[in-house]
Design a protein that fits this description.
Number of domains: 2
CATH topology of the largest domain: Heat Shock Protein 90
Oligomer: single chain
Strand order of the largest sheet: 6-8-9-11-10
Distance between the termini: 23 Å
Structural class: alpha+beta
Helix content: 40-55%
Strand content: 15-25%
Number of strands: 11
Number of helices: 9
């Protein structure tokens, strides 16, 4: 169960991926938008050329044959600002509506101010697009068409920059959010592991203290002293196992073919002798139809059994508590059903119970079931899940392990 430190290689890789992802989004949007702008600009140039061609055709027609309906159709297609000037780049204010399209003129301006405004726009449009000339029959220039970009093109020009800003904001928010989550997880992990260590050590130490007091009382009773020292030796062995478990965290444990029933029995026996001090009138049973060999790391799997027993003890709120380990098998797997008659698990919480840090207890630290899941699934390639749970009736966890 290697835990990567916040800011470690895994954290840096994710941050780099976020940066690359945001950069790709920004570049893709910019390239695509520029392509759209280019197509729209070409379309507007063609419309302006079509307008110039129409004006030229009108100039070439005889006065009696003039039909301007096609010119009106062209004008309707113009959705960008356009100024029709004479050959000297001047615009007459007379009939201004026919010479200036899609360009708002402030009605409060004087005529000279309006002309000044139009001339300024002519200079501005000349920077973006070359003017289109309208020729007479003798090829002299009779008009010049100046045109700017439509509002759609202007909006599209700004869109990539807005997208880049959003991408930068996304990177900043994602970076700080990720750093906060990683730092918070790391803090919870260290706190949880320290509390889990204290909790693991607490039971055998408390037991040893109790046996020590009993030993003082029965120090002259040889038979009793022998019984007490045997139990003290069991607690010392448990302390050794706890140290061994924590030493295995972060390394690949060795799996040995082991009788799974005997492993469960050893843990159950240890708890049954100490239950009166922790939970009155709770009975732990084992139901098995045989002995099954499974590739196990015994020290770590005993930790799994202990965590499930502790979880069941915390859930049992009635006096006559029952915890059962039902062990069965088929051709390829061994199944361990761990049931209790406790308070059950609400369906909305079932997906979170194996998440590190999740606990329904006020003073819980939420590592027991998380460690259990990792030991079963990461180290033993098995599965553990809630098989069933009914509020105020109990819960059944199922472990599936592959046979040798």
């Amino acid at each position: 169960m290697k835990q990567k430190m916040a800011g470690g290689p895994g954290s840096i890789q994710i941050k780099i991926i976020l940066l690359i992802f945001a950069t790709i989004i920004a570049l893709s949007t910019y390239i695509y938008t520029q392509s759209l702008i280019s197509q729209l600009e070409k379309r507007e140039v063609k419309v302006a050329e079509l307008f110039a061609s129409s004006l030229q055709q009108v100039a070439e027609l005889e006065a009696s044959d003039k039909d301007f309906t096609f010119l009106l159709d062209v004008i309707k297609r113009i959705d960008f600002p356009l100024i029709l000037a004479d050959s000297n780049n001047t615009v007459s204010l007379e009939g201004i509506g026919e010479r200036v399209r899609n360009l708002e003129l402030d009605s409060t301006l004087s005529n000279s101010q309006k002309l000044q405004f139009i001339n300024k726009k002519i200079e501005e449009y000349s920077e973006y697009n070359n003017p289109i000339f309208v020729y007479s029959q003798d090829s002299t220039i009779i008009s010049k068409i100046y045109f700017g970009n439509s509002s759609l093109i202007i909006q599209l020009r700004y869109y990539p920059y807005l997208q880049i800003i959003f991408a930068i904001m996304f990177i900043i928010i994602a970076y700080f959010s990720f750093s906060y989550v990683r730092k918070n997880e790391q803090s919870n992990l260290w706190v949880g592991m320290s509390k889990e260590t204290a909790h693991q050590l607490g039971t055998p130490i408390s037991s040893l203290m109790g046996w020590n007091e009993i030993l003082k009382i029965h120090k002259n009773n040889a038979d009793k002293v022998e019984e007490i020292t045997d139990e003290m030796n069991n607690d010392l062995l448990r302390l050794t196992k706890i140290a061994d478990r924590f030493s295995k965290i972060g390394s690949k444990p060795k799996l040995v073919d082991t009788n799974i029933v005997e492993v469960v029995e050893s843990v159950v026996e240890y708890f049954n002798k100490r239950l009166p001090n922790t939970q009155s009138k709770t009975e732990i049973k084992i139901i098995s139809s045989g002995n099954y060999l499974v590739p196990l790391n015994q020290s770590l799997f005993e930790w799994v059994v202990e965590n499930l027993i502790k979880n069941a003890l915390d859930a049992i709120k009635i006096k006559n508590g029952i915890i059962q380990f039902i062990i069965t098998d088929d051709v390829s797997n061994v199944y361990i059903d761990v049931s209790d008659n406790g308070k059950g698990i609400d369906i909305k919480n079932r997906k979170d119970i194996f998440r590190p840090g999740y606990s329904t207890k006020k003073r819980g630290w939420g590592l027991g079931l998380s460690l259990t899941k990792r030991i079963v699934e990461d180290y033993h390639k098995g599965k553990i899940f809630i098989k069933s749970s009914i509020i105020n009736e109990g819960t059944v966890f199922q472990i599936i392990l592959q046979k040798k």
